[in-house]
Amino acid sequence: ELKGKTWGIIGLGNIGRRVAAIAEAFGAEVIYTSPSGNAPQEGYHQVDLDTLLAESDIISVHAPLNQYTENLINESALKKMKKTASEPTVFIFIIVLIDDVLKHQYG
Length: 107
Fold this sequence. Notes:
4 helices; globular; two-stranded parallel ribbon; alpha/beta; 4-stranded parallel sheet; 107 residues
């Protein structure tokens, strides 16, 4: 049941926006943060990482592994999460390793 839950998205690129649309279709409120500090995107509610961790029932990460995302979700971050969000069934963690994907796809 996603209706009424807060879904926090870390990284609102193409994949993050698609996940946001799906989450909203199921009745979730979507908030996001940009690890690289990109400007707010129209139509989406941007918050800082600490707020996202504290308020989200579900968290998904859709960002390349780089200087902004390396060690982003560490012990300190996990301690800031809502207790319900720390359950494995509602914490989705996806970091896209762009270099690895490109090497695999294009050799």
